[in-house]
C-alpha cells in the first residue's frame, strides 16, 4: 500500500483507564490502515471500545500506548487543520439557531466572512436535501432531518475525513434506512474517508467497504471483513443472499460476547 | 388557532375569578371585623376605604397627603433597591462566569455564598448599617447581597448544564475560550440567569423595605412602622402594603418581559407562537 494513500493509520493503539485503583483495559493492540476515500465501520457491542477508538482518532482522548496518524500528522494537528468533521450520536444542534446558522457555526469559529459562510451553508443544505428548511429551527425538524443537519455541519468545514459516532442509533428503522442511502449518496459525491461507529451489523455491512469487528474484555480488533458488494447500493441489496451471507460472516467473527 | 384563543381568554378568566375571589374574601373579613372590633381599620379596612385614602387630600404630616408620603418614600426605597439589584445582578453573573472559568474560584467562593445565604437578612442589616453609617447605602448593599446569591447559583447551574457534546464540538472546531463562552455557554445560561432575576427582584424590594425600619429617616419601611405605631394615618400602612405587593409582582413580571426580549430560547418560543 502506498503511504500517501493512507488517510488514517492506527498503530498498535491501547487505552487503559484507571478507576478506583483498578486498571481497566478499554483497548489493546489495535492496528488498522484506512485508505483515502474508504468507508470503514467500527462494529461491536457496548464496551468493546469502538467509541473510545473514534475519540482517540478525533483527539478527544489520548491513547495510553501506540499512536494514530491522520494524513501523516497527529490527531491534534489534524484537528487544528480541520482535516476531519464529526457527527455525534445525538444531533447536538443549537436550539436557538436556525438550521443554516447551525451549519455556519464552525465557519463562524473559523472567522469566515458572512458571504462565504452563507454560500457554504447553502451548498451543504443542498447536499443533504434540506434547502427548504434553512430558516427552520431544529425543534421543528424530525430526528432524521436533525441528523442530516449534523452531517451538513460536519461537512461544512470541508474535511477530508468524516468521523461518525453511532449517528443513526436513535432513529427509527425506516428513517435509518433512508439515511443510509442518503449517506452513501453524499459519500459518493464528496469522496470523503468515513469512519463509522455502530453496533448494528446490517448497517455496517450495508454501508462499508470494510467492517472492523471489535470484541470486548479487553477491547480488541478481532476481524476485518471485506464487503465486496457492488455500488451504488440501494435498499433492495438487503434482500439478496450475498448480503445475508456477509451479515452472517460478520456475526460469526465476534469473539467472547 | 381557535382552541389556542380559547385557552388564552380562559386564562384571563381564571385570573379574573381569582381576583374577584380575593376581593370577596377580603370584604367578608372586613365586614366581620367591622362588627366585632372598635378600630376595624387597624385590622382589616374595607378596600374602598383604602382606595378613598389614596385620593384623599387630607394633609397627614409635613404638609403631605397619605399618597404623597407613600410615593416620596417609595422613591427613596425602590431606587436603592433597584441599584442594589443591578449591582447584585452584575456581580452574581460575573462570579458565576469566574467560578466556571476556574475550579479554584468555585471552591473558594462557594462556601461564602452559602454563608451569606444562611445569615438572616434581619441580622445582617444592622451590621451593614453600622459599617456604612448610611441607610441609603445599606439598602443598596442588602438588596445587592440578596440578589447576588440566586443570580449567581442559577447562572452557574446554567453554565454547567451545557451538554458535553456541544463542548466537544467546540473543541473539535478549535474554538478559543472566548468563543466557547460567547457562542455556547452564555446563550445556554441566559434562561437560568433570568430565573435568578425573577426570584431576586421581589426579594431586593422586600429587603430594602426591611432595612428602612432600622432607622427613622424615611423610606417605605420607616413609614410603615410609624403608621403601625399610629404616628400617622393607618392608611399609609395599607397603601404601602398594596404598593409593595404590586411592585414586587411587577418586578418579577418585568424580568419575564426582559427575558422574552433577550433570551435566545424565549425569543424562539415567541416567534413560534406567532
Order of helices and strands of chain A: EEEHEHEHHHEHEHEEH
SSE ordering of chain B: HHHEEHHHHHHHHH
Helix content bin of chain B: over 70%
Shape of chain B: globular
Determine the most extensive contact between two protein chains.
A-B, 23 and 20 residues
Q: Give unreliable regions of chain A as ranges.
A: none
Shape estimate of chain A: globular
Instruction: Name the quaternary structure.
Output: heterodimer
* N-to-C span of chain A: 33 Å
Briefly, what is this?
Helices cover 35% and strands 26% of the residues of chain A. Chain A has 257 residues and is α/β, with parallel strands linked by helices.
Account of the 3D structure:
The complex is a heterodimer of chains A (257) and B (274). Chain A starts with 5 loop residues before the first strand and ends in a 5-residue tail after the last helix. In chain A, strand 8 and strand 9 form a beta hairpin. In chain A, 35% of the residues lie in helices and 26% in strands. Chain A contains eight helices and nine strands. With 257 residues, chain A is of the alpha/beta class. Chain B is mostly helical and 274 residues long. Chain B is 84% helix and 2% strand. In chain B, a hairpin with a 2-residue loop joins strand 1 and strand 2. The longest helix of chain B has 36 residues. The radius of gyration of chain B is 23 Å and the shape is globular. Chains A and B meet through helix 3 of A and helix 8, helix 9 and helix 12 of B.
